[in-house]
Amino acid sequence: MRVADGRFLDGRGTRGLPAWLEREADRWSVRDGHGALLAGPAAVDALEVTPGVGGTPWLVRFPGGGLFEAPETPGLAALLPRRTAFVRRLESRLPWALAALLVTAAAVYGAVRWGVPAVARAAAERLPPELLAASGREALRWMDGRLFAPSRLDPGRRAALAARIEALAARHAPGYTVRVRFRRMGGTANAFALPSGDIVLTDRLVEILDGDGQVLAVAAHELGHLAHRHALRETLQHGILTTAVFMLAGDLSGVTGLLASLPVMLVELGYSRAMEREADAWAVRLLRAEGLEPALLASALGRIEANACAAPAAEGGDRKAAGGDGGCPDLPGWLSTHPLTEDRIRAILAHDPT
Prior knowledge:
By secondary structure, the protein is α+β, with helices and mostly antiparallel strands. It folds into 3 domains: 2-82, PH-domain like (Roll), CATH 2.30.29; 93-126; 128-350, no CATH class. It has helices spanning 82-91, 94-126, 129-146, 155-172, 203-208, 212-227, 230-249, 253-260, 262-268, 273-289, 295-310, 319-322, 341-350; strands spanning 2-9, 17-24, 27-32, 37-43, 48-50, 58-61, 67-70, 149-150, 179-184, 191-193, 198-202. Strand 2 and strand 3 (27-32) form a beta hairpin. The longest helix has 33 residues, at 94-126. The protein starts with a strand and ends with a helix.
């Protein structure tokens, strides 16, 4: 029985011969226009079949290397196993194809939205302290080489602030050995918490805040990031997604480069809306436990935002870095990945009984 007309490539040249595919009982063969046998007969299990997609031809490879290609015909479906043929029939029907696409999209969204963060959280909680310390040291070394300059704050002021913040950490984040570092970063007022327990405060941050209370409030927020391992979780989430892309693309060499770039990722990645709010809530509880007003954090955020929006780039202001916790956004709140500062201030004051 003649199944399909197409062409045959014998593997010795690039030009195909006009040919047709035939089926006799459970044997398949290819013959030329004169009926001469070109390949086969062969059982279907001996054939390598690649169905066409989107109008591309079907490919049927015979033992010995001969290849027959032809446009899709109903008879070609007999080459496929029953399960594969059923899937192909579904794929050829637009409603089923759209439904499969929607299910796949929903599965991918669910994995990215909930699955990856859950895996990252579990992994971050189980990483050994030695690895956290090493990643934090590398991140700080990277920042010192590219972003920071030595602090010019009064040494006595630095020592007093560091002692108060480290004492706070000892009382409220006992799982970490917190070390406060002061650095200059142009006109950028910001703070960073690294997985090693290092908390970096920039000179400009200390200069624009109104007293030690506001500095302590910002440090409490960073301790919240540290307690929830936000930097590590965000880095792991990014790493998992990037690794998945490399694996899907078949480029595993990129995974090695990804592991080597983890310290840089720790610096460059921002926090999500949920993480910022979680750190704010943690700071509010800490401040209350210390007998301090949560409004200190709200007012500190307002000053940081004002500095970020006012500092021109030519004078060293870095909108992205200064706005890392939601400062001076260019996007509306529903498009931004970080909560707007005004929203955070409202949420903090809503929990402040004063």
